[in-house]
Amino acid sequence: MTVAAISQHARRFVEGRLPDWVEPRWFSDKDELYRLLPEVEIGWFDGAGFGAMLDAPLHAQRLRWLNTFTAGVEAWPLEDLRKRGVIFTNGTGVNDIAVAEYVILGMLVLAKQYHEVVRAQDHSEWLPDAPGKIELNGTRALIVGAGAIGTRVAALLAPFEVHVTEVRRGAREGAIGADEWRDRLGEFDWVIVLVPATADTNGMFGEVEFAAMKQGASILNFARGSVLDQPALIAAVNLGHLGGAFLDVTDPEPLPSDHPLWKCENIRISQHLSGRSQTALFARASQRFLENLSRWEKGEALLGTVDLDLGY
Questions:
Q1: Does residue 158 contact residue 137 with C-beta atoms inside 8 Å?
Q2: Using an 8 Å Cβ cutoff, are 72 and 224 in contact?
Q3: Contact present, 302 and 292 (Cβ < 8 Å)
Q4: Residue 63: which residues within 8 A CB-CB, separation 6 or more?
Q5: Residues 118-168 pLDDT 10s
Q6: CATH 3.40.50.720, the chain: domain bounds
Q7: pLDDT tens sequence across 4-35
Q8: Exposure b/e, 211-244, CB count within 10 A at least 16 = b
Q9: Buried-most residue among 150, 160, 265, 293 (CB within 10 A)?
Q10: Considering the chain, what is the average pLDDT of its residues?
């Protein structure tokens, strides 16, 4: 039997569907999880609390496969997992629906200046005119980091007749390569950032990139706060070169109440809520987990396997 630690949150989705070679050990909190760790070979530690799930792999010395429904993995002990030969699978493809829908929300909020409508309602004020009149139809969007989420964003934008260009590590038909996008920034009305957080992507958007963007264009960041130079972004928006920004992620998180990002009129901040704006997270993640258990038994490659050298 192979011992697997699984959160009670996933129990109703997987119990009775686990293969007979898996011995599930359910946990409700950090303390219950830590009591299980000496025996765990397969660990799905989501549900124990953010700090606990990141720390738990270090104490599970029999661990062979670590699973998570999070997409970004930079906070996990990747080097330790690599040295120990632990397979690590993340939530690529699990959160793409929720995040992609939030991207469309962000674009519409900026295009229609919808925060002004909300403010007017808060003050029982009837606006005499629409505060934002940009139509998505006919605009051009650049998706930097077109993985599972980016692919879904492109599909959602198709009915709006937005012309989408994708940036991928390897150029392919309909996409441009990682070395080409900076020279083309001036072509786009929207720049949507979905890259993983790595040493290569840290600060990849700064003063030079913002200056190269089209006058009045907007940037939306659903990657990590570290990907954008935030002071440079504030300057570009306040000077009027950029039309605005929608930030689901910031650096740091939570953002301190006195941080200048809060005071920048044309920057909207959604407090890293995009991936959590769903009710099906554990259901979707459980389906992926069950499929990967079948693959594990057959010796097949697991879905969502993280390259521990690249960090995503």
A1: no
A2: yes
A3: yes
A4: 40, 41, 42, 43, 57, 84, 86
A5: 999 999 999 999 999 999 999 999 999 988 999 999 999 999 999 999 998
A6: 2-94+278-298, 96-276
A7: 999 999 999 999 999 999 999 999 999 999 99
A8: eebbeebbbbbbbbbbbbbbebbbbbbeeeebbb
A9: 150
A10: 96
d(C-alpha 56, C-alpha 33), whole Å = 8
Residue 123 tokens read as: 């003050």
Radius of gyration of the chain (CA): 21
Q: Please name the residue that has the structure tokens 């070395």.
A: 179
With 0-12 / 13-18 / 19 or more C-beta atoms within 10 angstroms meaning exposed / middle / buried, residue 256 is exposed
Is 136:107 a contact under the CB 8 Å cutoff?
Answer: yes
Structure tokens given for 134: 């940009």
CB atoms closer than 10 angstroms to residue 3:
17
80: region left, alpha or beta (phi > 0 left; psi from -120 to 50 alpha) = alpha
CATH 3.90.1150.10 is right for the domain spanning 96-276: no
Nearest residue to 13 via CA among 65, 69, 77: 69
Helix ranges (DSSP H) in the chain: 8-14, 30-36, 50-59, 78-84, 96-112, 114-122, 148-157, 207-212, 230-238, 281-298
CATH code that applies to domain 2-94+278-298 = 3.40.50.720
